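Below is the record:
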Amino acid sequence: MNKEKEVSMQWYDVKELHNHFGLAITFALLKIFPAVFVRILAFPVGFCYFLFSKKANAASRLYLRQLNSFLSAKGKRVKESALKHIVSFAITLTEKLEVWSGKFSFKQIHFQNDDVHDLIENLENKRGAMVIVSHLGNSEMLRGLAHSAQTGVSYQFAVNTILDTKVTAGFNAMVNKINSGAMVNIFSADSVGPDTILILQEKIQNGELVVIAGDRMSANTKNRFIMQDFLGKPAPFAYGAYLLTALLDVPTYFMFGVRKKDLSIFPQYDMFVKKNPISFDCPRKEREERIMQTIANYAHELERLCAAHPYQWYNFFDFWA
């Protein structure tokens, strides 16, 4: 396989950077040692991935070059360090396991003076919502906060997550082993259909959240996408995630949890919440245009935070392919 073919592969064609054995070791260490010790180990682990994963290296450099192309118009630039990028991912993976093993203090998460207040108000009134997350930072924080009843909402609500359970099977199995309650509200992206939408609508009516990532396409619907400028170049965004948003027709928020510093063994997280101003209470003929505008709004928020935290976007494939 040539280098161009390696970089152009989509995420579902690329083996995940983590594996079950590595996750099991990390979990075992978390049970014995303080979390900070395990975070320190993420540095040599990330270095090993950097040395042996050519695909991750190539994808990281491609992304960072594209980011610099985007930033150059603003007179800015970041160091194109695949090593820093991969080590940042190793730290985040450790922190995801910390969340579910009870070793992560949610006092380390800082909400902003943004649309989080609107979201909390909706939830307090038992009105659920749709949340679109990303592979920037640590989206596991939201489920962990809700599971631990540390959201700032006066009652404990469920978070229903839609993800590709086949591709993330190893990580899901480990999380389930750590905390079986974590996987209760998981829906496979492969099986989302009319019946699922009815179930999700009922859950939202009960004051729950529905969460889906907006920056990856499903392996089963890889031909259904909408091209949208991202970091200065058209990229395919999954149509299905945004169609679901339109069909549910409820308040929708973009949520991102990122470390204040890309590399830190004592992490502090900023949680950003942005409400999508687009409503889908409209004739069907207007729906496609509003879906496209929602994607544009999401892409704008994502690229803004990628520029601020360049080493925390963990899509190790050619996103623009």
The longest strand covers residues 252-259. The chain has a mean pLDDT of 84.
